[in-house]
Amino acid sequence: MNRIAIYPGSFDPVTHGHLDIVRRAAGIFDSVIVAVTDPGGKKTLFPLRERVELFGKAVRGWPRVSVQSFKGLLVDYATEKKACAIVRGLRAVSDFEYEFQMALMNRHLSKRRGSSLETVYMMPDESYTYLSSSLVKEVARLKGDIDHFVPPAVCTALKKYIK
Ligand code: ADP
């Protein structure tokens, strides 16, 4: 059985925290699809195409990991891809309430479609628990050092955008 997991998010931009989760997910699933999407109601710094490109560069050569974009309902996308699970990262208790709500909503929606989709939460290495895309953008905007938090291509792209 081919067990496919979807790791959805806005990834604006991808950080080492996201990559840590992909690495862990790739260790337990047969393949992982990173599904980049637009966050509901929020504006992103990077357009969708560039967020996909930057994530793609960061995982180039990683076996069984691919990066795609999607629009619409996650459960529909997961069904189309024949995925059995959604993977999300949990950094702190503050992530929990929203994630819990999302997981139950997705379970409800997938059940209505006659499929069963589980949400699997993974904890990153503790050195990434304080890391978020928005904090990285803020540090970059204030001309702080972001090299430790994001892959090199993201570092270059952020410096260009922030200028
Ligand atoms: P979204 O807009 O869907 O929350 P994000 O790009 O912010 O998209 O996050 C995508 C997923 O990655 C979420 O599950 C989030 O909790 C997780 N995540 C974000 N930053 C980190 C991190 N530093 N370590 C582990 N997981 C993270």
State the low-pLDDT regions, or none.
none
Largest sheet: 5 strands, parallel
Number of helices: 6
The second-level CATH architecture is: 3-Layer(aba) Sandwich
Total count of domains = 1
- What CATH calls the topology is Rossmann fold
Primary descriptors:
163 residues, alpha/beta, Rossmann fold, 6 helices, 44% helix, 17% strand, binds adenosine-5'-diphosphate
Summary?
By secondary structure, this protein is of the alpha/beta class. It has helices at residues 16-28, 48-58, 74-80, 93-112, 133-141, 152-162, and strands at 4-9, 31-36, 65-69, 85-89, 118-122. It has a single domain (4-162), classed as Rossmann fold (3-Layer(aba) Sandwich).
Helices and strands in order:
Elements: E1 4-9, H1 16-28, E2 31-36, H2 48-58, E3 65-69, H3 74-80, E4 85-89, H4 93-112, E5 118-122, H5 133-141, H6 152-162
Parallel strand pairs: 1-2, 1-4, 2-3, 4-5
Residues 9-11, 15, 17-18, 20-21, 39, 88-89, 91, 95, 124, 128, 131-133 line the site of adenosine-5'-diphosphate.
